[in-house]
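Suppose a colleague, Dr. K., hands you the sequence of a protein chain of 315 amino acids and asks what its three-dimensional shape might be. Before reaching for any lab equipment, you can write down a predicted structure in token form. Begin with the sequence itself:
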Amino acid sequence: LASLAGAALLLAWAATDRLWLFYLVWGAIGVAQAGALAEPAYAVVVANARDARRAITGMTFITGFTGTIFLPLGGALIEALGWRGALVTLAALQVVPGLITAVLLRGTRPGLTGAAEGSSGPLRRALRRRAFWALALCFCVHAFLQTGIIFHLIPLLQERGLPPASVLLVVAMHGPCQVASRAALFALGKRAGPLPVGLAATASLPLAMLALGLAGDGLAALFGFALLWGVANGMMLIIRATGVAEFLGAEGYGQISGALATATVLPRTAAPLAVALIWEGAGGYAPVPWLFAALGVVGVAAFAVAASDRPGPIR
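The predicted structure, expressed as tokens, is then:
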């Protein structure tokens, strides 16, 4: 339903000619995204797949190419059809996965289990676990760092005097590194347990920020930052998807993962403004990588706490 609603909302956006209507449609698109993107998909996979971790890793490997495909496609459609025509075309494309999903998911089990104890039973039990709050903190740190860097990396590199071509090269490296890390996890399968993967992912973030802080305008060091940042993001998505089931159990996965995703909304939306205020107060981006590195260490510690509260040995 959310996927098909997204197609209808893209058509509504194409017909919009008032600013207030644009805001209304854009807000509704956000609601549709919440029901059509990663979190609900992972809930369905955990409830139905034989090897949820491998299935989710395969999914994220494919979706890692989303920006690579749709950014140039969107630009080409706008060039050929105008922005309204581009939206109509994208709406037509959006209908296809919506219909395929409706057909393929018939007969699957929902991702919200534990109905016999009441719909909130699994979530209530999770809220009493130290692992839940530690994972929430870890995911919040990652969300803050991810959006903070995404929105400010280009002006940060420009501030260091890098030419536009070098700036774009550093930024573009993130996607391939992210996909490469997911491909490696997919190839390793069950040999890549959640504990070593989670520690590698969370530790890569502060290391990436340290590399960014020390790099100056040196391209080699900046490539090291892009590599670590891409690997961290690529693996963290897997941990966000599978860590809930590994540390808190598969029962009520949809509820619990939804609660954890909700916790990341504020840091994700606050990060761009917070970094902008730091930039304004400091007169530049110099302190940002070091502050981010310190936050990244908090994320590593939080994941370690979550791992220590696991119900049994991690495979």
